[in-house]
Design brief:
Elements: H1 3-18, H2 20-27, E1 30-31, E2 36-38, E3 41-42, E4 49-51, E5 55-58, E6 61-62, E7 85-87, E8 91-93, E9 98-99, E10 104-105, E11 109-111, E12 116-117, E13 125-129, E14 132-137, H3 138-145, H4 157-169
Parallel strand pairs: 1-4, 2-5, 3-6, 4-7, 5-8, 6-9, 7-10, 8-11, 9-12, 11-13
Antiparallel strand pairs: 13-14
Length: 171
């Protein structure tokens, strides 16, 4: 490993823990505004990943190549199966998901935790599973959750603790 590669690895490791979106940009991922990437990883072609605006992902792996080609390596030593990944705007990707090569996730999409996304996901969808399948529309999800949310997003940690303690812990 040359010194330039070594320094890049150190910088990436630091950024990975401090600012995931910045670390991904450092690797060559195209990322929009207001993105939150927490402990996400990218395969050997991060420059083939494009992430839109207002995307949140935690411990998600973006895989741009199909390693299954390995079994054909002796007959076809120079084969690669590689395809870009594109994530739209306003997307939430739950913890531990895997996004496979060639996938396009549309706008306004929720991907449930631990899902494996093998095919394109249309706009305004909620998907879950392995392989990920459309469960409902974003409007159906909104109708379901709107009656069970709390106005605490802008509160401090101590204010949230007080609010939820009064709500759930008082008898």
């Amino acid at each position: 490993m040359n010194i330039k590669t070594f320094i890049r690895k150190i910088i990436h490791k630091y950024l990975y823990h401090v600012d995931g979106a910045r670390a991904a940009r450092f690797l060559g991922v195209k990322i929009g505004n207001q993105c939150r990437l927490i402990h996400c990883t990218f395969s050997s072609e991060p420059y083939l990943v494009e992430i839109g605006n207002h995307v949140s992902a935690t411990r998600t792996h973006f895989e741009t190549h199909d390693g299954g080609i390995w079994v054909f390596r002796e007959q076809h030593p120079d084969w690669d199966k590689i395809a870009p990944i594109k994530i739209g705007n306003n997307v939430y990707i739950g913890e531990g998901c895997i996004i496979l090569p060639g996938v396009h996730i549309g706008n306004n999409v929720i991907v449930g935790a631990r899902s494996v996304v093998t095919k394109n996901i249309p706009d305004n969808s909620v998907v879950v599973g392995s392989p990920a399948r459309v469960l409902k529309s974003i409007d159906e999800y909104f109708d379901k959750v709107q009656h069970s949310v709390y106005p605490t997003k802008q509160l401090s940690s101590s204010q949230k603790k007080e609010y939820y303690s009064q709500l759930f812990l008082q008898k």
